[in-house]
Amino acid sequence: MPHLTLITTGGTIEKTYDEASGSLANRRSIVRRMLSRLRLADTTIGTLELLSKDSLDMTDADRAAIVQAVRAAGGSPELATQSTGIVILHGTDTLSITGEHLVKSIPHPRVPIVLTGAMRPYEMKRSDALQNLNEAIFAAGVLTPGVYCVAHGRALAFPGVTKDREHGTFVKR
Question: What is the CATH number of the domain that holds 45?
Answer without folding.
Answer: 3.40.50.1170
